[in-house]
Structure formats: C-alpha cells, structure tokens
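It is worth pausing here to work through a concrete case rather than discussing structure prediction in the abstract. The textbook approach is simple: state the sequence, then state the predicted structure, then interpret. We follow exactly that order.
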Amino acid sequence: MIETHLDQLRTTLEQATGLPENTKAELLELVAALRTETSPQAAEAGAPGTTETSTAGISGLMASVETLEVSHPEIAALINQVAITLSRMGI
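Step two, the predicted structure:
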C-alpha cells in the first residue's frame, strides 16, 4: 500500500509543471529515500541505521515541504485541502 502511494507521489512529481527543477529533484530523492526506508528489509527488527535514516528523511521532507509552501503557496494549499478531504473520508 505504501509503495503504491509512493509510486503515485513520484509520478505526480515527475509530471508536475511549475516546480523548480532543483525542488522537484529534491522531492524525488526524498520519495526514493522513503521507499528505501519502508522496504521490508529496513523494517526488520534491528535494521542498522533505520532510526537515524528515518529522522534525516523526515527532516529533509519537512524542509522541502516548507520550501514548496513558500515558493508555491497555492499548490501547497491545494495539496493540504486534498489531504484534509481524504482524512475526513478515512483514507
């Protein structure tokens, strides 16, 4: 399920227009990192470095989201509204 969402996110980012190329590349790298972190191998008990990698990935993702919010406030607001609507639907 997570892999499907990551695939959809990657596809959306790849097709996005109006995003600066460096921002798009950074977000795609973070999606790739999330895919690695959520792989079954990383989820195994005692997987070395998983906590540190997760923390770094989350920090990087948050920084990218903040950059997106500043540079494209309308897109960020739309994404937020979609997330809220999906949340209310229980998705």
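Step three, interpretation. The two ends are 12 Å apart (CA to CA). The chain has one domain: 2-65.
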